[in-house]
Amino acid sequence: MDAGGDGGHVPTTIQFPVKLYSSDHKPLNEVDFFTDRKDDIVLDDRSKFEDDDYSDLNHKDINLEVELETMRDENRRLKQELDLVKKKLRKHEEEKRDEDPKHANEVDMMPMPFIDLGMASLEDENSRSTSDGKSHDERSRLQITNIDGRDRRDEILEHVLPCSNKVARLNDSKNDGSIDQATEATIRKARVSVRAKSEAPMITDGCQWRKYGQKMAKGNPCPRAYYRCTMAAGCPVRKQVQRCAEDRTILITTYEGNHNHPLPPAAMAISSTTSSAARMLLTGSMPSSDGIINSNLLARTLFPCSSTMATISASAPFPTVTLDLTQSQNSLLPPAGQPHNFSGENNNTALLPQIIGQTLYNQSKFSGLQLSQDAAANGQVSRAGLADTLTVINNPNFTAALAMAISSIMSGGGGGSGDGGARTNAGVNTSNGGNNGSVNKKDDEFCFRRN
DNA sequence: CGCTTTTGACCGGCGC
DNA sequence: GCGCCGGTCAAAAGCG
User: Fold this and answer.
1) What does the entry list under GO cellular component (predicted)?
2) Which of A81, A287, A298, A337 has a Cα at 20 to 30 A from A315?
3) Cβ of A320 < 7 Å from strand C?
């Protein structure tokens, strides 16, 4: 995300709502995705496309059919892979339970092999909370490599890094740990941007920052300030702060990187959220431009109760998640002139953790499957949405990342009450990348906004 | 005096 | 190769 892109993109909204049904017309959210029925998912497009309509399918439609079929094949393959992994996991779990009953629930909590989710603070927490003394990172690697006795990291990596052609594939890095480094490098490039109305020069997010630079960015009369985390020596986390060009009351804070030190609870929520979002952005993608769509699905999955909030730019080299709090400012943010405080130290505090916690809480209840009730009500469908959905739910990293995100929020005190209403307008917005004379043409943004 | 901020210079990536 | 641009560095200045 860059200044120009932040500064007033007005995305064109194209809706791709979708409701999924299994082959026996059972709503998909009631379907066990980890059964064979997953392959039988069909799109309930009857409300939109009558049979006669298919005769009018143009080449794009046909291409979509081909893509969809390809996607189904891929899903079958992934499912078989997943089944195999599940069997191995069960076996592993049983063996582990036999060995040491106190580990009995460990696999349940992390039901799939997953890449290091890498939030330093969470790793710290995990390492503290586990009795075997292994860090989360260590255990992740063990799971990846020991599930069936062979190294599966390449396969998993295929799910993690497909969205960026510029990220080196690590075919030669099976045994030296460089996968983690490369993944981390990619993750570091992923950014999370928070848009919030504020008269204060900087939002209070619980961390200590030192300003190390300021630049005028093209297309924005407001300077962009660069900050580095100073809570620990060598902490790689940086953030950029800039006012929106079109509405200077909007403060845009862009975070990049993962802290290498424990965080205070105040900073924990936003840090883990940005990290989780960034990782989900990267993990929920496909090898083509469709990856962007998947990322959007993640956005509306991750933030089901606030479709105006989540914006994801998945394009390389800096995929970016934007949390737009300006839409809900009246109820969520303190009055103009007061610094925003996400630290949970006063009455209106923990706002961001609350938002995120609530959305993740909702997500945890709906498992990411009840994606578009509104869409179904409107009778709108999308084949791209189907492929999109199938890929995401087939991605082991999705669940793992989601679980980690949820656990991070819960442990960070941002659980939120949750309204249970995972409603979302599954609108996929596309901007032309020229948002307000965009500085960075590399970011093609796909946004969600309530119409 | 030590820390932070400011600000011009420098560097690397990218497009033409 | 050149220019543009974003990002970073580091010396100087400011501040408590």
Assistant:
1) nucleus
2) A81
3) no
What per-residue string of b and e applies to A6-36 under the rule 16 or more CB within 10 Å gives b? Answer: bbbbebebebbbbbbbbeeeeebbebebeee
Give distance CA A180 / C1' B5 (Å): 36
Round to a whole number and report the distance in Å from the CA of A5 to the C1' of B11: 24
What gap in Å lies between CA A302 and CA A322, rounded to an integer?
A: 12
Closest CA to A353 of A405, A425, A301: A405
Nearest CA to the C1' of B3 belongs to which residue? A210
**Which residues 144-183 in chain A have a CB closer than 7 A to strand B?**
166
B4 C1' closest Cα residue: A210
- Alpha-carbon distance A336 to A86, whole Å? 52
pTM higher than 0.90 for the full model?
Answer: no
**Minimum-distance nucleotide, CA of A209 to C1':** B4
**A251 with A197: CB under 8 angstroms?**
yes
- Chain Cα centroid distance, residue A412: 18
Q: Determine the distance between A225 (CA) and B6 (C1') in angstroms.
A: 11
DSSP A340: P
Give pLDDT, residue A70: 63
Tell me the β-bridge partners of A211: A227
Give the burial class of A370: count Cβ atoms within 10 A of its Cβ; 0-12 exposed, 13-18 middle, 19 or more buried: buried
Q: What is the C-alpha to C-alpha distance for residues A350 and A340, in angstroms, rounded to an integer?
A: 10
> Is the CB of residue A191 inside 7 Å of nucleic acid strand C?
no
What SS3 state is found at A171? coil
pLDDT digits over A107-128, tens only? 333 333 222 333 333 333 333 3
Positions of E strands within A90-197: 191-197
Q: What is the pLDDT of residues A407-444, one digit of tens each?
A: 343 333 333 333 333 333 322 233 332 233 233 333 33
pLDDT exceeding 90 applies to what percent of chain A? 3
Judged against a pLDDT cut of 90, whether residue A280 lies above it is answered with no
